[in-house]
Amino acid sequence: MTRSIVCGASQGIGRAVAKALALRGDEVHLLARRAGPLEAVAADLRARGAHATPWPVDLADPQDLDGTLDAILATGPVQVLIHNTGGPPGGPLLKASVDALRDTFLQHVGSAHQMAQRLVPQMGTYGRIVCVVSTSVREPLDGLGVSNTVRAAMGGWCKTLSRELPPGVTVNCVLPGPTDTERLTAIAEATAQRTGKDVDAVRTQMVSAVPEGRIASADEIASVVAFLASEAASFVRGTALAVDGGRSRAI
Fold this sequence. Notes:
By secondary structure, the chain is of the alpha/beta class. The protein has a single domain, classed as 3-Layer(aba) Sandwich (Rossmann fold). Helices cover about 45% and strands about 15% of the residues. The protein contains eight helices and seven strands; from the N terminus they run βαβαβαβαβαβαααβ. Strands 3-2-1-4-5-6-7 form a seven-stranded parallel β-sheet, sandwiched between helices. Helix 1 crosses helix 8. The mean pLDDT is about 95.
């Protein structure tokens, strides 16, 4: 049985990915900060006959994360890592503090690096790392200065790591476009407050930039993540795959 770690599994895309992997037969270890919602996701998956274990942890706390990894690896090797974590508050980059940049870098790039260092050596000849990032890896999004900066760093980290991993162990990025999650709702509300627009008008504007003409469901993003985390994606390595309904204009 494949053993997988899914970060940010208490809601949104992370929750959908956990469900996709668990229902295909993986033993899934669920990571997120909030114990209550995380346990609810695990309970739902177990009710469906899946193997799911919740691990409340703060990815921005290296000691907390290291202890959680110790506990997981004590029960056996892990073949799949889905790195996914929440984005920082919005706002212009020039108004962001150095602390905000540092803290977000630690939460994203720092935790991914720490987990890869712990997990890759025990993966052997088969492993999958999939990082859920954002299309801002390619094109910055207005009003998300810190997020744009750190997401781009995540893309660079993944691409660099792809050159160093042994054969059979791959790393790829998924770049979701606007997706119907709690994060999108928060961004729409913050944009509405900043611009004086109605929240529905903000969402309509988001949709207008998507050639597919709608916002994605979390399950649609999860299906692509699950593919990259499967044996079928054995020759996909070091790529950043936009799943955004055609919104990205860069190749």
